[in-house]
Design brief:
Length: about 1900
């Protein structure tokens, strides 16, 4: 009862009672408000103010509602508190009334809006909103526009895109800080503040009084509702409950902000006024309630642990001394002792689980705890406390929107930004604890991006609130919570700590809002400058970066495979990229000019300090720990990138920012370790670490990471190499790559650190690395455009690329402001310079191509750079792909026929600062290695590959290209023996060393090696190469015999150099070198003993090269110096002839360069060539070589055989594909076996594709055709208008389906069923326009029993791809075409050629009688249906399949369900559907003639047999057989008697084509040709009469009487029965007797065509009426009797078909114009039968004249079906549909889709529209397309096809300017219709080939 008591004490009414009496309440409110307003307007308004306060106290008391809602017990205590909602609504009503001051609230809103100086749009949106970004207009990269402002501005030709907002945002239109004014929309272009009148004082006066109370009331609710969550239970539910209750209040505030600038400035006053806040919230009043509320507020503050030292930074000390930021650093160096208090609230639950990494969090020293820190926590205004609660409640969307809606008010913006910064640390803490950190992150960024994108604002806050200090410190604190001890290098004693990538903080990217804010503010020059000038900040930041140095350490598993593959590497790479690299790029973008040198110096200085600390912390001396690698060295990379910038842009002297030699040695170790590990990973040495290690190696070089990872690493190594001793560097490289032991002259060796199988790839890795190191110029002097071009060429050489994938693959500078924005001018210009655009093409197979860019020929010729390709490939196969493409180019252009080697590409010149790098190429160590490798390759030692040779030659060539000053030959020749005392080579210049002969080499080899057996040559005793020497003084040498064997020299050399450098740099070097490392290289004891052997070599590099040339070409003396013929060659050695080719060419090129650089070399080469060289390798090897040659030959032969087989197979496959698959090209088809029956063959022979046997189909073992049955509604989509329907894109355009073929036929059938006998109606029409069954085959046959066993095997096979065996689906065993049934082939000849086709000369009357008799015989069928043969069973089962293919509603049209008439109608309609569809596939007419593409694979013949067999089960009662009505005259009086019974359908209302099919299917099969012709002739008479009747109904009364008159005159002519005038006049006179022509309504006149009827137009009209029938009949004849169709012009189609069908007499003359009537051949006198037919109509029209007339006018000219026409630009569709509400559930669907057949708007996967477990798309596909649906997904721009129970993504018909799809609209570029693609789609729909052409089908389980 406490609440109630308190309320009573204060004198407030108890909750249940309303404040004011109920009647006239609203009136009273208005009156009160008006009264108060008047009172307040007086000069002395104290009384009014007090009165208002009292009223507000009463109305806005925060006690009631929440007490009632807080969950029961409090409510009960409060006396049952009524409904919580009512009181709050009441309060809101009061507020609205008071604000309006007695007037109407809506009018008040309008009045305030009039004063809005709308200069800014400021529309705030939430996630998933569709907005636009224009890079051309944006100043800040975060700029965005709402759709309305975007479309109203002019952005033509700009670089813009549409995007779905991730986190929400606000429209920047009108804000010139963020975007250029040229891009403003029409509304916000006017700077309208000038002409807006001043706001009258009294308009907003009430608001100023009421709003403070209202906001305070809101804050009290928030205080009241918040309960500190228990340690483990998340309390989101409670928070959400509170927020739901407050929804109306916050919405009310939001509405206020939308009233415009005037109201916003009032709100700003209220929110920022400190006095107001103090008065209301101090909680000092006598009101117990207020006290309680204030206490809750204090508790909340305390529990938030807001006692951060940085709050002191914010307020406590305003003078910006250097001390401010050093505060942040103290106590951080050792990262141990805890200073300040440990905040326990979130310490325990975060770190409790981590035993190992548990360490107290390091606090920043808080100095003296003065009171100021406590003061900070007192919020000084409503705004501050509101933000506090917004954060506490984890950023509820409504609150965020309200706070952002206020931003257009400048004063508010500044105040809010400061408040936001003040709460920054608190935001971080809340974010870390949050369970919904994703949502919360988005909302934080939603706010911060609006604040920090504005440079002016960011600068102000940086200066006034120490923004940078706060941000850096907060980030530091955040990362501190997840540090662990680093295990890199020295596990036990390491002092270094790194972030633990497994922690949620990193795994879920929780830190990104803070990092993204930091990156955002660093993009402003003024802010970045402050950062770079502030030493303290830089130190802190380097501290932060060092947390990531060495994170996610990998240790190589040597024994078994790791159990659990950790995926933490994603987190690690993301963290380095986002938290370290992006801020670095941000800073770098401000170090572009000379004036900024100091900034670079600062960064480099603190970076080196941090690195030094790091080396000390991990106890690093000189050797990296084996078998571990980390890919994360952000400190190294910071250092590298700032060095690069300094040299490139700031003209700094490189040496001034480099450390001493010792530090350089340390710096190179870890990046080098990464390069070696990459090679190890690719050599599968880390395979036991699982796939994730490969993932790391790929990510490290992947396009989004490479320029923040591998590029700086390589650059740093290049810098180190250019400054360190080259011999030391080279030996380090080979030692790191573990291939030192391999580099021996001996043929056998032992490698103590590497397995033999890995040696080759590691050696390749080492050499490739050296090549990259020496030839990459990315940071060594290339300009930005050159870099872009090189990157682009490398990507295009690997594969043709689409525009978007190129943008994605080319590493742009990750900082958006850096200037090379993709899509910028330079990108497009470079692209057009290096690549050609290949427009998308379409193959008939249906695979969709995208528009691709492919390298120009000259790029392959001059710019293809294998080094760049190797550096940039994520997958090794891409290197191969580039080489294959290069090879293909050379073959095609005729430049080189064989297999080329990677070309050598000239490099751009080095920047002078890095000249030292080239010393690597001129150091003895490298020359020894090259010499050794050349020798080993020549001697065919194991583990050397072509790749090794290629790289060796590349290095030699690099050395020749970059040789130092030209050496003088004289000096070299003088050089006496003493020069080469201790080395293999005299000097270090490669050019002179190349010709230097090395005679003997001493090697250490296993005793088993072949070298040991030989005696050393007597003459020279032992010439030891112990110290790498060639000797002319053997005696001296013997004395210093075993210095150390040649191999070890590499290691020893490195140690020695290292020692020297250390001694130079430090006095206490003795303790540095650890003795234990030396024994690492001794061979393990178990190995065979090493002994020393001496090899006789007597070669120089030049001689080795020439011998290599012989070896490669396989000929002796193959090398002939080219300059002997043409001395010019030496002067200009760049000859195109040498630029492409294989190894031979490379050797020639090198020798040429060597000769042109030194006369000595030239002479020596000539000398070597003069000596006829003996065979190079010793005899022993020739046998082996012979073996390899034999092997080669055998391989060659095998290859040729394989080639032949493949070619044969391909040609077979091609011919098969043509017959089986090709939908579009009838020309080159090879007829299938089905139609190849020769006239003399009596039975058709079929091949079974399963068992391979051939034979006829028999009753016991029937053969069947593989068929696909599918229901189709394509026919029903034909319309009668030529103009295709458009997809509706406005509310006005709607598509109504009443003019479709299906609708018209439906109406006709239901009309007939109203007035006529049901069974007769069902014979008068065809169904199947919707849901008709279409049968198609691939043309392959199989035995039905084979098929059954095939289906069994499929059923047992678990791996099914996209089809369901239980539904009978399978793929044809031969051509894999989709099928679902087998259609039995009828035994006997397939095409009855001879017997049945003889023309008989019986009269038509005789034939009519025969036909009638044949129809009467019930079982006149070769196969007796009673005997159950296999064949008849199969026929029944296939009939069942056909029925089950379509839905019941498309089969049952009878009024009596299940009547046999239904089946009868259905069966002949199946035949009709298939004929009509074939006609459509032929383009709607038969002008092309010939056998159609479908004809080869047509199954109509077999289908007819099956249908006929079943139709004959239903005999038609002879009374009703239409044949009688057509061919016999009846007595008239029968018709009148039985009125009460429904009459039969008059014969003139019958559909003639249906009659034809009924007649033919009722005849015994096979049918005789003359019977067929007879039926056609009889039906044509009926058809012609119908045409005349329709014509007579269509025309006017005058026309009719004129014709009647004309015809009557000619009636007695001899050919009266064949004259349309006579017949027409007769029809008119007959029908005039009834009421048919009487009621001429006005609507009839509309149908009359205005032109007068000429004989030509009448003839045309009659022919058009009859043509559809003739077409279908001709097709039928073609299938039944196998006659080809003649081709013809369109205008003569009628006459050609008529003569083809035998309607035209053979002697018919074609001189005079053709008259359709001449085809008539009446079986009975014409006038009599017409009278009889017209009589039926008359008796019907007596009663129903309207309907009678409607039924006579049949629309017979249907146009071809089409899909809806789509607009040119996709945006028009998107803008209309993506916001459109669903008609069923009236919500905006998450995945809207639209049907392209009928334009219906549907929800894809929408649960709202589900009916009986069917989602809307599936349901619609059944209703609209009988199971086939084609939908355009609005949000994805793709088309999805539903076919029955399966679906597939078809692709998109909208492409961007570069010919690419944009699935899911990810890129948001403008899309345009691709007409070819749409045509392909339509073609597949009409030809029912979706199942065959699209391969990726999956079941949809009715969920679409």
């Amino acid at each position: 009862m406490a609440a109630a008591a308190a309320a009573a004490a204060v004198g407030e009414p108890q909750p249940p009672q309303p404040e004011l009496p109920a009647p006239g309440m609203s009136l009273d409110k208005a009156a009160t408000a008006a009264h108060l307003k008047a009172a307040l307007s007086r000069p002395d308004n104290r009384a009014g103010a007090e009165e208002l306060q009292a009223l507000l106290e009463r109305v806005l008391s925060a006690e009631r509602p929440l007490a009632a809602a807080a969950g029961g017990e409090e409510a009960a205590a409060g006396g049952g508190g009524g409904t919580p909602g009512a009181a709050e609504e009441e309060a809101l009503e009061w507020c609205k009334c008071l604000l309006a001051g007695g007037g109407g609230y809506d009018e008040f809103c309008a009045a305030v809006r009039a004063y809005d100086p709308a200069a800014l749009c400021g529309l705030v949106w939430t996630a998933n909103f569709v907005a636009y970004r224009c890079r051309t207009c944006g100043i800040s990269p975060c700029m965005s526009l709402c759709a309305e402002c975007f479309h109203q501005g002019d952005h033509t030709g700009h670089d813009f895109n549409m995007f779905r907002s991730q986190a929400g945002g606000a429209c920047d239109c009108g804000d010139s800080n963020v975007m250029r004014e040229s891009g403003f929309c029409k509304r916000h272009q006017i700077k309208s503040s000038s002409n807006i009148p001043c706001v009258p004082k009294d308009l907003l006066m009430m608001s100023e009084f009421v709003l403070p109370r209202f906001i305070f009331c809101l804050i009290q609710y928030l205080r009241e509702g918040y309960n500190e969550p228990a340690a483990d239970v998340p309390s989101e539910k409670d928070l959400n409950k509170v927020l739901q209750l407050l929804e109306p209040q916050i919405s009310f505030l939001e509405d206020l902000t939308k009233m415009g600038g005037a109201m916003r400035s009032v709100l700003t006053q209220v929110l920022t006024n400190q006095q107001n806040y103090k008065d209301l919230t101090s909680g000092l009043g006598e009101n117990a309630w207020a006290k309680k509320s204030h206490e809750k507020y204090l508790i909340a503050l305390k529990s938030s642990g807001l006692t951060y030292p940085e709050d002191k930074l914010v307020y406590g000390m305003q003078e910006p001394s250097a001390g401010t930021s050093t505060l942040a650093v103290q106590g951080f160096a050792g990262a141990t002792g805890t200073l300040g208090q440990v905040d326990s609230s979130d310490e325990e639950d975060q770190d409790g689980s981590q035993g190992l990494g548990k360490r107290k969090r390091v606090k920043l020293s808080s100095g003296t705890k003065d009171q100021s820190i406590m003061d900070v926590l007192k919020h000084k205004s409503f705004l501050e406390e509101l933000l506090f609660w917004t954060i506490k409640y984890e950023f509820p969307q409504k609150m965020v929107t309200f706070l952002l809606n206020m931003l257009p008010d400048q004063e508010y913006k500044v105040a809010f930004t400061k408040t936001f910064v003040q709460h920054y640390a608190f935001i971080m803490k809340t974010l870390k604890k949050s369970h919904e950190s994703d949502t919360m992150s988005n909302r934080i960024v939603h706010i911060s991006v609006q604040l920090f994108s504005n440079e002016e604002l960011a600068r102000q806050v940086t200066e006034e609130c120490q923004l940078l200090d706060i941000m850096v410190t907060v980030l530091l604190y955040m990362m501190e919570s997840c540090l662990i001890k680093s295990e890199l290098q020295d596990e036990e004693n390491s002092l270094h700590v790194v972030v633990n990538c497994g922690e949620a903080l990193l795994k879920n990217n929780t830190y990104w809002p803070l990092v993204s804010d930091f990156i955002n503010i660093l993009s402003h020059q003024s802010v970045a400058k402050r950062f770079l000038e502030d030493h303290g900040l830089l130190v802190t930041w380097m501290n932060f970066v060092s947390f990531f140095q060495g994170m996610n350490l990998n240790k190589r598993e040597l024994n078994e495979h790791v159990e659990f593959e950790s995926q933490t590497y994603y987190a690690a790479f993301a963290a380095e990229l986002e938290a370290c690299a992006q801020p670095m790029w941000g800073l770098l973008s401000h170090c572009k000019v000379r004036e900024t040198q100091d900034y670079t110096r600062n960064v480099v200085r603190y970076c080196l300090e941090a690195l030094q600390d790091w080396f000390d912390a991990i106890n690093f001396v000189d050797e990296p720990a084996p078998n571990q690698v980390t890919f994360h060295l952000p400190l190294h990379r910071y250092y590298a990138m700032f060095l690069s910038k300094a040299v490139k842009c700031q003209e700094l002297d490189l040496d001034s920012v480099l450390p001493d030699q010792e530090m350089l040695m340390k710096l190179m170790i870890h990046p080098l370790q990464i390069q070696a590990s990459l090679a190890e990973i690719h050599s599968n040495m880390w395979v036991r670490n699982g796939l994730q290690i490969k993932g790391q190696a790929m990510t490290y070089v992947q396009s989004h990471f490479c320029n923040s990872m591998i590029d700086p690493d390589i650059y740093l190594l290049q810098v180190c190499a250019s400054r360190l001793d080259p011999d030391y560097f080279i030996s380090s490289v080979f030692e790191r790559f573990k291939v030192v032991d391999l580099l021996t002259m001996a043929s056998q060796h032992q490698n103590t650190v590497l397995d033999a199988e890995h040696e080759r790839s590691m050696l390749e890795g080492a050499l490739t690395f050296l090549v990259i190191l020496l030839s990459l110029r990315l940071h060594l002097g290339m300009s930005d455009d050159e870099i872009l071009r090189a990157e682009m060429v490398a990507q295009l050489c690997m594969n043709d690329r689409t525009h978007s994938s190129l943008l994605d693959l080319i590493p742009e500078n990750p900082n958006p402001k850096s200037g090379i924005v993709p899509g910028s001018y330079s990108f497009e210009s470079v692209l057009s310079a290096v690549a050609d655009f290949k427009a998308p093409v379409f193959e008939p197979g249906g695979s969709m191509q995208q528009g691709m860019y492919t390298p120009k020929a000259e790029v392959w010729d001059q710019e293809f750079d294998p080094v760049m390709v190797i550096l940039r490939t994520v997958y090794r196969r891409d290197v191969q792909s580039a080489m294959d493409r290069y090879t293909a180019f050379l073959k095609q252009s005729g430049k080189f026929p064989g297999n080329p080697w990677p070309p050598y590409k000239k490099r751009t010149s080095l920047h002078p600062s890095y000249k030292g790098l080239m010393r690597l190429l001129h150091c003895k160590t490298l020359h020894i290695v090259l010499f050794t490798l050349l020798y080993k390759i020549l001697m065919d030692h194991q583990n050397l590959s072509e790749h090794v040779l290629c790289m060796v030659l590349y290095l030699i060539e690099l050395g020749l290209e970059n040789s130092a000053e030209e050496e003088s030959d004289e000096e070299a020749s003088v050089s006496g023996p003493e020069h080469c005392h201790d080395s293999w080579f005299p000097g270090s210049n490669l050019v002179s060393n190349m010709r230097h002969f090395i005679n003997y080499v001493r090697v250490r080899v296993p005793e088993t090696a072949p070298e040991v057996k030989r005696d050393s040559p007597a003459s020279t005793s032992s010439d030891s190469l112990g110290s790498l020497q060639s000797s002319r003084r053997p005696k001296v040498l013997q004395r210093e015999n075993y210095r150390t064997a040649q191999i070890f020299s590499l290691v020893a050399e490195r140690r020695k150099k290292f020692q020297e450098i250390i001694n130079r740099s430090s006095s206490e070097a003795n303790q540095v070198v650890r003795p234990k490392t030396s024994n690492k290289w001794s061979a393990p004891g178990s190995a065979p003993q090493l002994t020393t052997a001496i090899l006789e070599i007597k070669e120089s590099i030049l001689s080795l090269l020439i011998k290599l040339h012989h070896k490669l070409s396989g000929k002796q003396n193959s090398y002939y110096p080219p300059w002997l013929d043409d001395i010019e060659i030496l002067i200009q050695p760049e000859i195109p002839k040498y630029s492409h080719g294989d190894g031979i060419m490379a050797v020639e090129r090198i020798l040429l360069k060597a000769a042109s650089q030194s006369r000595m070399n030239k002479r020596i080469i000539e000398e070597i060539c003069r000596k006829v060289t003996p065979p190079v390798p010793p005899k022993k090897i020739t046998a082996a070589e012979k073996k390899t040659l034999d092997k080669e030959e055998r391989r060659q032969k095998a290859r040729e055989r394989q080639q032949k087989l493949l070619a044969e197979f391909a040609s077979r496959q091609k011919s098969f594909m043509e017959t089986a698959m090709d939908v579009d090209s009838p020309e080159n088809d090879i007829p299938m076996e089905i139609t190849t029956a020769e006239p003399q063959v009596s039975e058709a022979i079929y091949d079974c594709v399963i068992c391979g046997q051939s034979g006829p189909s028999s009753e016991d073992r029937p053969t069947g055709l593989v068929v696909l049955l599918q229901a189709s509604s394509v026919l029903g989509q034909c319309r009668d208008s030529v103009e295709p329907k458009k997809l509706p894109i406005t509310e006005e355009e709607q598509i109504y389906p009443w003019d479709t073929c299906a609708a018209v036929h439906d109406v006709r059938l239901s009309l007939l069923q109203r007035y006529f006998k049901d069974s007769s109606c069902l014979l008068a029409v065809s169904i199947g326009w919707e849901g008709g069954v279409y049968v198609q085959t691939c043309g392959h046959t199989l035995h039905i029993d084979c098929h059954k066993s095939y289906m069994e095997s499929l059923r047992n096979d678990q791996v099914l791809q996209g089809f369901s065996v239980d539904k009978g689906e399978f793929t044809c065993p031969l051509c894999r075409q989709f099928a679902n049934s087998v259609l039995p082939c009828y035994p006997g000849s397939n095409v009855e050629n001879n017997l049945w086709q003889r023309p008989s000369n019986k009269s038509i009357q005789d034939l009519v009688k025969e036909v009638e008799e044949l129809q009467g015989r019930p079982g006149a069928f070769p196969v007796s249906i009673s005997s159950e043969t296999n064949l008849s069973k199969e026929m029944e089962s296939v009939m069942k399949d056909i029925k089950n293919t379509t839905q019941k509603k498309y089969r049952d049209y009878s009024k009596t369900p299940g009547s046999p008439d239904n089946d009868f109608l259905f069966m002949y309609s199946v035949a009709r559907t298939n004929l009509e569809l074939e006609l459509i596939h032929r383009g709607g007419n038969l002008c092309s003639g010939g056998a159609s593409a479908a004809g080869k694979r047509s199954c109509l013949n077999q289908l007819f047999h099956v249908l006929a067999l079943h139709m004959r089960l239903y005999s038609i009662d002879s009374e009703y057989n239409p044949w009688r009505k057509l061919t016999q005259l009846e007595e008239v009086n029968l018709q009148l008697g039985n009125e009460e019974q429904q009459p039969e359908v008059p014969i003139l209302y019958h559909d003639v084509t249906s009659l034809l099919l009924i007649q033919i299917l009722m005849m015994p099969q096979p049918l005789r040709k003359d019977h067929f012709t007879c039926i056609v002739k009889v039906l044509f008479t009926l058809l012609y009469t119908q045409a005349l009747v329709a014509l007579s109904v269509k025309c006017s009364e005058e026309d009719r009487s004129a014709w009647k008159h004309v015809g009557a005159l000619k009636k007695n002519a001899c050919d009266a029965e064949k004259s349309y005038e006579v017949l027409l006049s007769f029809v008119i006179s007959e029908l005039s007797k009834g009421k048919l022509y009487h009621e001429e309504g006005t609507q009839e006149c509309a149908m009359v065509s205005p032109i007068a009827w000429s004989p030509e137009s009448m003839e045309k009209c009659l022919q058009d009426f009859c043509l559809p029938f003739l077409r279908i009949t001709s097709l039928l004849q073609h299938h039944l009797f196998g006659e080809d169709l003649p081709s013809c012009q369109e205008e003569e189609e009628f006459s050609v078909l008529a003569s083809c069908l035998g309607l035209l007499p053979a002697f018919y003359q074609t001189e005079h114009p053709f008259i359709s009537a001449s085809c008539l051949d009446w079986p009975v006198p014409a006038f009599d039968i017409i009278t009889q037919w017209c009589f039926e109509i008359k008796s019907f029209t007596e009663r129903h004249a309207e309907q009678g007339k409607a039924l006579l006018i049949q629309e017979s000219r249907w146009k071809l079906p089409h899909l809806l026409q789509l607009p040119e630009n996709y945006n028009t569709i998107f803008q209309y549909y993506h916001r459109k509400t669903c008609s069923v559930c009236t919500k905006v669907p998450k995945d809207p889709a639209v049907c392209l057949v009928c334009g219906t708007f549907v929800c894809l996967k929408g649960l709202c529209c589900k009916q009986q477990s069917y989602c809307e798309c599936v349901l619609h596909s059944q209703n609209c397309g009988a199971g086939t649906g084609i939908f355009l997904l609005i949000n994805a721009s793709v088309i999805i096809i539903i076919r029955g129970h399966r679906f597939c993504l078809w692709g998109s018909v909208y492409l961007d300017a570069h010919g690419e799809e944009d699935r899911d609209l990810r890129r948001g570029k403008p899309l345009y219709i691709c007409k070819e693609r749409y045509k392909v789609l339509e073609q597949q729909w009409i030809s029912h080939t979706f199942d065959h052409i699209n391969k990726r089908w999956g079941p949809h389980y009715n969920g679409l």
